[in-house]
Amino acid sequence: MTAVFRDRCLLALAGGERTGEVTGRFRFLAASAAAFPAVGDWALVRDAGPERALVHALFPRRNVVSRKEAGLVWEEQVLAANVDVAFVMTAFDADFNVRRLERYAVLARQSGLEPVVLLNKCDLAAADDGRLAEAIDANPGGGVHRVSARAGLGLDIVGFYLAEGRTGIFLGSSGVGKSTLLNALLGGEIQRTRTVRLSDGRGRHTTTSRQMFALPGGGLVIDTPGLREIEPWADAAAVDDAFSEISALARRCRFADCTHGPETGCAVKEAVEKGTLPAARYESYLKLRKEMAYLRRKVDPAEDAENKRRWKNIHRAAKALYKERNKSQG
């Protein structure tokens, strides 16, 4: 599957490319939108003419890169399947946002991937630009590299990750330079791009769908439109992986089930108070953990009911404690 549009997909077959669509049986049996074809999928298909093919089934996926559907829909949106490396792209300009990088890191790690951050437009930044250190802190253990898509700097680094047979995906905001980097890797104007508005730094490129491209060295890369909403389809474990330094601190907390909130003996809060853990990163960690817990409850009614029962018992116990305390004092 090399591209996916609204109700069609582009298939790379031995006899050439075909426009594909799922069969009625496939549509009927699909459990959710996430079960439909995504870029990177391998599929069982049948020719239905010189330019058309029918998708009967998908082969099991090795992994998926996914997020929550935008808006108030509590469903998984698969961005790509069978990916080896996730490139999170930002730039030395108004697009740079540490909190957004953290969200992309969670999204990638939920897929079993170690995110690689690409800081584009390095030719416009000083060698000691502090945003490089911020990106490294936002992606502990993962790669962070300076590149310039227009100047052709760092292309060899990207190519190193995309050796023959490996598939990568470009993730990032609109206009950050994903399509420009892709064109540089391909050596031609494959994806149409436009300049970034100087007034607000917003991109105006024309990538509107996810599509896979074959690189000269044998690797594959998936270009994606900019994501306006980055809500990872993840769980607490992915957040812990993306905030590994906080996870390490948490092992020293007094209580094994410490929430790093009001409890005493919290090693994480102690690090914040000492200044060894940035308060903003700590707050981002708590926010993402809370979001992921809420997501799990919304998609799992049983877990939601259990959570309500747990809090009801907590409030009942607290009420009884206060009542007993007032009685003893009276």
Description of the structure:
With 330 residues, this protein is of the alpha/beta class. It folds into four domains: 3-58, no CATH class; 64-223, 3-Layer(aba) Sandwich (Rossmann fold), CATH 3.40.50.300; 235-298, Probable gtpase engc, domain 3 (Ribonucleotide Reductase Protein R1, domain 1); 300-330. The protein contains ten helices and 13 strands. It has helices spanning 24-29, 98-110, 131-138, 155-161, 178-186, 236-242, 244-250, 267-274, 279-299, 301-329; strands at residues 3-4, 9-13, 16-22, 43-47, 52-58, 64-68, 76-81, 85-91, 116-120, 143-146, 167-172, 210-214, 220-223. The strands form two sheets. Strands 4-5-3-2-1-12-13-11-8-9-10 form an eleven-stranded mixed beta sheet, with helices on both faces. It has a two-stranded antiparallel ribbon with strand order 6-7. Strand 6 (64-68) and strand 7 form a beta hairpin. Helix 2 crosses helix 6 (236-242) and helix 9 crosses helix 10 (301-329). The termini are far apart.
Question: Topology, pairings included?
Answer:
Layout: E1 3-4, E2 9-13, E3 16-22, H1 24-29, E4 43-47, E5 52-58, E6 64-68, E7 76-81, E8 85-91, H2 98-110, E9 116-120, H3 131-138, E10 143-146, H4 155-161, E11 167-172, H5 178-186, E12 210-214, E13 220-223, H6 236-242, H7 244-250, H8 267-274, H9 279-299, H10 301-329
Parallel strand pairs: 3-5, 8-9, 8-11, 9-10, 11-13
Antiparallel strand pairs: 1-2, 1-12, 2-3, 4-5, 6-7, 12-13
Helix pairs in contact: 2-6, 9-10
